[in-house]
Predict the structure.
Amino acid sequence: MIDVKQILNIAHYEVVHIFKDLILFLIVFAAPLLYAALFGMIYISGTLQHVPLGIVDLDHSAESRAVVSAFENAANFQVIPEVNTYAGLEEGMKNGAVRAGVVIPKDYSQKLSQHQLTQILTVYDSSNLIYGYNTRKYFQTVLNTFSAEHTAAYLGGLGMTKQEITNVMDAVSFRMQVWYNPTFSYVTFLFMGLVIMILHQIGLLSIGLTVTREKERNSWIQFLCAAVPQWKIFLGKALPYFIANFFNYGLLLWISARFVNVKIGGSLALILLLGLLFNVILVSLGFIISLYAPNSLQVTRYLMLLSVPLFVISGYTWPATHIPMVLNGLARLMPYTWMAEGFRLATVKGLGFDYLSTTILVMTIMAAITTCFALSVTEGRFLCTARAKSRLIKILYRR
Amino acid sequence: MPKRNGTGRRNFIQNRVDVIMFSQSRAIMKRELSYMWRDKGLRNILLIVPLLGLLLFVGVYSYQRVDNISTAIVDLDKSSASQQVITGLKNSQDLQVIAYPNNYDHLRELIKKGEVIVGVVIPENYGKDVALGHQTKVAVLIDGTNMIYATNATSAILTVTRTLGAEIGIKTLIAQGIQPNQALEAYQSIEFREEAWFNPTMNYAYFLVLAFALNMWQQCCTLTSCMNIIGENGVRSWLQIKASGMSTLKLFFCKSLVHIGIFMLMVLPVYFFAFGIFRFPLTSGWPLLLLFTFVFTISLHSLGTLMSSISGNAVNATRFGMVIALPSFVISGFTWPLETMPQWFQPLAWILPQTWFFQGINYLTFKNQGWEFMSRYIFVLGLMAVLFYSAAALYAHSVKTLFRKG
C-alpha cells in the first residue's frame, strides 16, 4: 500500500514555497493568463482588413471610376484619397501610409473604346508578407469580380440578353470552399500555437526551479537525508505544478474560445488527453532540468531563450513540408511540435482518435520516457551525491 | 627634481588625476569583461545563441517560398476539356498536382490527413456540358488550417480559374456565333499586372530570418543588461566597491560601455552572415544600419538596467527583463501588423524600444529609407535610453536612501 501522506507532505511544502515567493506565484498563476490576454488582444481582429490602398487614376474617365468604385466597395481595402499620384504612391508605400496601390493608365478609356488591350497595375507591399499575400488574394478577388462585370457589360453592349450573358459567363463556375478556417482568421491559425508555447514555457520554468531553489537554499540536504523514496520526492514536488498547469490549460482554452473567438471544436476527451500527456511530459522534463541545472538563473535564461526556436522549427506556421528533413527530425523530438500539431488537428480540423493515433502514441512514449527518466535520474542523482552527502554530514557534525 | 610653480603643479595634479581616473575606468571595464567571461552560462549564450539562431532560421526558411502546394484532382469526366483544367492547374507555379483520387471521399480523406492542401473536383459530363453550353460546376476545396498555405493557394486558384473561365467563355461565345476578336475582347481587353514591391519574389527568408535572429539577439542583450545593477549590489563585493569610494556613476557607466560594446560585437557577425553570406536585402546601407542598431542597443540596455534596478535578485531581474523581451517581437508588429491591433493598444506598443527597432529594421532592409526618415526613430530610441537610465538611477537611489533611513 502506497503511503500517499508523504507525497502530500512534500506537495504541501512545495505549495507553501509557491505562495511564499510572490514572483513564482505570479509565474505559475498569473503569467499564463497575462500572456494569453496580451496575445489575444494583439490577434483579436483575426483577419487583415482595411488594407490602406492608394489609387492613382491617371485617366479620370467614367470607365476608370468604375475601377475605383470596385475597390472602394471592397471590404478589405480602405482607399486613402490623399495618395493619388504615382510619386505619392511610391512615397506612401515607402513610409507605410499605404500598403497597396492601383494604377490606372491615362489612356485606359481610350484604349477600351478603341478595342485595344489595356493594363491595370496592382502593387502591394511585400516587405511584410502577411500584408503581401493577403493583399494579393484580395486583389485577385476584386479583380475577378470586376473582370466578370466588365465582360457582362461588354456582352450587353453586343446586344445579348441578361439570361444569355449569365449562360455564357456561368458556363463553368468554380466554387471555392475553404475548409476549417473559412474566414482566414489568424486567431484560429496562430493564437493557440502561442498559447501552447506559453503553457510549455511556464510549465517548464515553474517546476524547473524546484530543485535548484532547494540547492541554493542548502535545503536539498534535507531531502537527501530524509527517509523518503526518491520517486515520492518527484511525485510530491511535481503534483502542485501538474495541477496548476492543468488548471491553466483549461482556463486558457476557455478564455481563448470565449473571449478571443478561437475555433476550438472536436472531441473534449481528446483535448483533455492531449493536455494530460503534455502536462506529464512538462513536469517530468522540468524536474529533470531542475535536477541537473547548476542554478535557477541558468534555468531561467536557457528556457526563455528556447521559445522562439521551438516555435519556428515546429512547423506550426512555416509548413513542415518546406523545412529540411534534419530540422524536421529535430522538431519531432520536441513535445511542443506534437502537442501544437495534435491540438490543431483535434480542435480546428475536428479529427478524432483514429487520425491522431500517431500523435497520441508519440506523446505517450515521450511521457513514459520522461517520467521514468525523472524517477531513475533522481535515483542516479542520489547515488551520485551520496559522497557529497556524507561529506556534508561530516561538516555539519563537526560544527 | 625640477620645481613647479602654482599652475604647473595644478596641471601636474590634474594629469595625475586624469591618469588615475582613466586607469580606474579601464580596470572597471576589464573587471566587467572578466566577470562576463567567467559566467559560463552567459558566455555561451552571448557567443553562440544569436549566430546559431540565424543559421537555424536560415535552415528552416531555406525553401523561401511556399510554392508547389500539394494538390489532388478528382477527374470524374476524363475528357479533353477536363484535361484542359488539369493542365491549367499544373501550369501554376504555386500548385503541384500529386494525386488523382477516384472520388470525393478519397479526396476528403487526403485533405483531412493533411496529405494534400488543395482539392479540385471536375464533375461527370463536364466536357459535354461545356460543349453544349450547359452550366457546370467545378468544386475547389482548400485546407485553411495553415494560413501560409491557404492564402497562397487561394491566390493561385483565383488566378487559374480566371484564366480558365476566360478561355471557356471565349470558346462558348465563338460557338454561339460571336466574332473571335469580340469574344477575346469581352474577356481579355483588360490585363491585370501585379507587382510585389520591396520583396519581389515574396521571399519568407528575407522577411523573417534576420528579424528572428535579431529577436534572439535582443533577448540575449536583455539577459545581460538585466544583471547591470543587481549583478553588483546583489553580491557581497558591493560593500568593497562602496568602501573604495569609487563613483557609482562611473562604475555603471564603464560597465554599460562594456555591455553595449559586447552587444554590438555580437550583432556584427549576424549582419555579416545575413547580408554578406546569405545576401539578404539591405537597401539603406551599412552606416545607417549600424548607427540605428547602436542607438537601439543603448536603449535596450537602459531598459534592462531599469529592470535590474527594480529587482531583488538576479533571477527576478532576468524574469522581469524577459517578461518584456519575449513578447516584444509579436507586439512590435513586425509580423502581424500594428494597424490591426486594437486602437488603444497601439500607443502602448510604441513604448517598447523593440517596436521602434523592428519597424526600423524593416524600413532599412527593404525600403531604402534614409537619414531624414530614420532620424525620428533614432531620436526616440535615444530619448528612451535617457528616460530608462534616469528612472533606473532614481529608483536605485531612492532604494539606497530608504535603506539608509531604515
In short: The radius of gyration of chain B is 32 Å.
